[in-house]
Design a protein that fits this description.
Elements (H helix, E strand, L loop, with lengths): L1 H30 L5 H29 L2 H17 L9 H28 L9 H31 L1 H29 L1
Helix pairs in contact: 1-2, 1-4, 1-5, 1-6, 2-4, 3-4, 3-6, 5-6
Length: 192
């Protein structure tokens, strides 16, 4: 039950973290570096295409590596590292902001595919955590709640409290994700 709930919850955290990062990156590039909207759209869109290609390449490598739990946890810690690049104390260049965005998005999606697979693997028919209910939680929670709330929250935090508050908020979500996936790994191992 813990593995199932952890995997499903990670999907919500991942959607929130990646959506907040994408919208926050755009605002940072606009506010701090004075980039025009068209340039931001092109660069951030290009970065997302590169992230998608990296995710596909990592997916192939992951299947050859055959250590999904280790891959999932390393990916979550890469995302946590990526949030450090958003700290105003460590980054003062647009490249570091874009690199952070790339690391967070690519690694969160890699970890998420394994976490959600584990959730489905541990689903219990006829319970709140059945496959059908997990799909509802996944689709409604990720698409209608996390992806809806994260962008405006990130932008309000950046515009009213600054990048340090934004950075600390993302650290909280990324750190929580790491702990949640370690819990998922432990729970999955206990059921084997």
């Amino acid at each position: 039950m813990v593995a199932c709930a952890s995997g499903a919850l990670y999907g919500l955290l991942r959607a929130f973290l990646t959506s907040a990062t994408e919208s926050g990156t755009s605002l940072i590039l606009q506010m701090e570096f004075g980039w025009p909207v068209a340039r931001i759209g092109f660069v951030v869109g290009s970065m997302l295409v590169v992230s998608a290609l990296a995710i596909m390449a990592l997916s192939v490598a992951h299947h050859k590596w055959n250590q999904p739990n280790l891959f999932m946890n390393i990916s979550s810690f890469v995302a946590l590292f990526g949030t450090w690049l958003l700290s105003p104390r460590f980054s003062s260049l647009p490249f570091s902001i874009l690199l952070a965005d790339f690391l967070i998005v690519a690694s969160c999606f890699c970890a998420g595919s394994i976490a959600e697979g584990r959730a489905m693997e541990h689903a219990k028919p006829g319970t709140v955590l059945s496959v059908e209910n997990i799909w509802v939680i996944r689709n409604v929670g990720k698409n209608n709640i996390s992806r809806f709330l994260a962008p405006p929250m990130a932008r309000v935090m950046l515009s009213t409290s600054g990048r340090m508050s934004y950075f600390l908020g993302l650290q909280l979500f990324a750190g929580s994700s790491c702990v949640l996936l370690l819990l998922l790994t432990y729970a999955h191992a206990k059921t084997k």
